[in-house]
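Q: What would this chain look like folded?
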Amino acid sequence: MLTLYTYWRSSTSYRVRIMLNWKGLPYRPEYVSLPRMDHRAAPFLGTNPQGLVPALQDGDFELAQSMAIFEYLEERHPSPALLPTDVRRRAYVRMLANIVACDIHPLNNVRVLRHLEQRLGLDEAARNDWYATWIAAGLQAFEASLEHWGWDGDYCCGDEPGLADVCLVPQLYNARRFGCDLRPYPRLAAIARRCESLPPFAAAHPSTQADAVA
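A: My prediction, written as structure tokens:
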């Protein structure tokens, strides 16, 4: 059985939980507490020297980085797919996913927010302004990309969720956590609502995880 090293509120862990659920792959969750700094302790560093969640263990094979984990799962378990069959649609879905994975998330992850507070002395209001600034820039780009390049359908690319939706939903969850205004992104919000009603997404939601803190 697969083992997923995860933290309930980590958006990248959330992505991988959705992927595994979508593909119907059973897994054993291994909970890594970020507030307790478990990810920086020796046991976990033996699995992922980078000290970040998520990490996936498949027998004697270990892998980190959610997008690399996605590619591994998609190639090893191609059905049900999270990428379209058409090469142009596949590229389009990867482009949308990378708006989240490469442009939004790296600027707003826990390490960056801690650095802003602890090393640069930003107070909570200034930190939240930083967060909201880059959320807005990324979500504006995502919404505009759907309008500019998008195919019709209820999801980011057609009538089935895919990798772009898997990345979008956790990012909107985080945006809501930080009180970001999502009204300028009605199409993204509608896509997220549809996704969140589906069992693979619902079962991956942070509030349903055994390590969730009320």
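The chain has two domains: 2-80, 87-200.
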